[in-house]
Amino acid sequence: MVPGIARGKRSGGAHAGHTMNHSAKPLPSDVSVFILAPMVLPISSHDLAPGDSKSAALDLAQYEILRIRSLHDPHFETAYGHLWKEFGAKDEMELRATLDLRFQLAPRLLYEMLLVRRGGEFVAVRDHTAILSQDRKQAVVHLSHNLVAPAARRTGLAGWLRALPIATARECLAQQEAPPGSRITLLAEMEYPQPDDPARMIRLQAYERAGFRKIDPALISYHQPDFRAPAVIDATGGPRPLPFQLIVRRVGREHERVVSGKETRSLVQALYDIYSSQFRPEDFAHPLLSLDSYPPSRTLIPLLPPTQC
Question: Which domains, ranges and CATH numbers included, belong to the chain?
Answer without folding.
Answer: 18-304 (3.40.630.30)
